[in-house]
From TrEMBL:
It holds the Pfam family OSTMP1. This is GH26007p. The lineage of its organism: Eukaryota, Metazoa, Ecdysozoa, Arthropoda, Hexapoda. InterPro entries: Osteopetrosis-assoc_TM_1 (IPR019172). It comes from Drosophila melanogaster (Fruit fly). The keyword Membrane applies. The chain crosses the membrane at residues 197-219. Residues 279-315 are annotated as: Disordered. GO terms for cellular component: cytosol; lysosome; transmembrane transporter complex. Residues 1-16 form the signal peptide. Keywords: Membrane, Signal, Transmembrane, Transmembrane helix. The gene is Ostm1.
Length: 315
């Protein structure tokens, strides 16, 4: 029933237009020109009002189709086209039409309607928008990442297919979506934060190991410097020196044989100790007898030695 009414309406409309065309040729050309002017102004109004965010291709496609139809009707009529096109140097009708057509082509608008690009993009984009609006702000990056990646992947595949000239509506929308994702929602920063976190964890794990080795090196070097002292106090503990072996293993740059080093240091230590004890013995043993000898013995010894000698002589 509905389709019957629609068909009837179409027949009436077509017959009406046919009657108008028959009615008068002058009228017809003016009517065609007026229709074209009307379509142009409507399209310009649409393009200007839907410029930010760009919604030219999808938002004005019906008006653009009407515009090209009206222009086609005008040039299809040989009498009208002769009258309005190439009639003077400015050629206003062709110029305004050319400006609007080039705007449409510059925006690659026809690529929106190729291979269902706009529909698939729009489905993916709506899914992402719904996710962004429903997710809580601290989980939004995590929850919506799959939707974002599939939209971005689809965009990249589309870009490949059309050789980079993606319809401008979708270019603009993808641009905004990416900016929103990285700048407003800071989802890329959170990824950077995650890597920073992993680096920090790595440092925290490795730091104690480095600290242990550095401490081991420092401690063993100090022990070596104090080798003599330690030898004096605890000779058995310090023996061929585990500390020297650790140092050699950790640094693994030592060219000298650790046993030789420890042997040498032990020798030095022994010499020092020997010298020290000798000095101590000399000072403690020699001085008191010297004093005695100087103070008492010459007189007493002499007298005791002389007296017995003198006594037998006298006796
Ligand atoms: C396009 O033109 C047709 C007939 O000329 C009209 O019915 C339709 O409303 C126009 N479309 C728009 C979006 O104005
Ligand atoms: C153009 O005008 C001439 C006469 O002025 C007429 O004979 C002819 O049929 C017209 N052509 C069209 C396509 O209207
Ligand atoms: C998103 O795009 C992919 C193609 O990359 C498509 O297979 C999928 O159906 C789209 N998702 C939605 C929700 O439309
Ligand atoms: C994307 O947006 C930025 C900032 O608004 C702008 O400078 C750049 O030209 C835009 N790129 C495209 C392809 O629209
Ligand atoms: C940017 O993200 C927010 C998420 O809170 C969302 O509400 C908004 O619609 C997004 N804007 C665009 C242009 O994607």
């Amino acid at each position: 029933m509905r389709s019957y009414i629609a068909l009837l309406g179409l027949i009436l409309t077509l017959s009406g237009q046919f009657n108008m065309l028959l009615a008068g040729k002058k009228h017809s050309c003016e009517k065609l020109l007026a229709d074209l002017g009307d379509a142009q102004s409507k399209f310009i109004y649409c393009a200007t009002t839907k410029s930010v965010p760009v919604n030219l291709c999808e938002g004005c496609v019906d008006l653009y189709r009407n515009l090209t139809n009206d222009y086609g009707n005008l040039i299809a009529n040989a009498n009208c086209s002769k009258r309005y096109l190439n009639s003077d140097r400015i050629n206003i009708v062709a110029t305004t039409q050319g400006i609007l057509t080039s705007l449409w082509q510059k925006a690659n608008c026809e690529n929106c309607f190729r291979d269902n690009f706009w529909i698939v993009y729009s489905d993916n984009s709506t899914k992402l928008q719904n996710c962004l609006e429903s997710a809580s702000s601290d989980l939004v990056c995590f929850k919506c990442k799959n939707d974002y990646v599939s939209l971005n992947d689809f965009y990249l595949s589309m870009e490949k297919k059309v050789g980079g000239s993606v319809c401008f509506d979708l270019q603009d929308n993808m641009n905004r979506t990416r900016l929103n994702w990285s700048k407003t929602l800071k989802c890329c920063q959170r990824e950077v934060k995650l890597t920073n976190f992993l680096i920090a964890v790595g440092v925290v794990v490795l730091l104690p190991i480095f600290t242990f080795y550095i401490t081991a090196v420092v401690v063993t070097k100090r022990r070596e410097a104090n080798h003599g002292l330690l030898n004096e106090q605890e000779p058995e503990l310090d023996a061929p020196s585990t500390s020297t072996l650790i140092t050699a293993a950790v640094l693994s740059t030592s060219t000298e044989d650790p046993v030789a080093i420890s042997a040498r240091t032990e020798k030095i230590a022994n010499v020092l100790i020997g010298a020290g004890t000798h000095l101590l013995d000399e000072s403690s043993d020699e001085e008191p007898p010297r004093g005695k000898k100087v103070a008492h013995s010459p007189a007493s010894d002499y007298s005791s030695d002389d007296e017995p000698l003198e006594k037998p002589k006298r006796a």
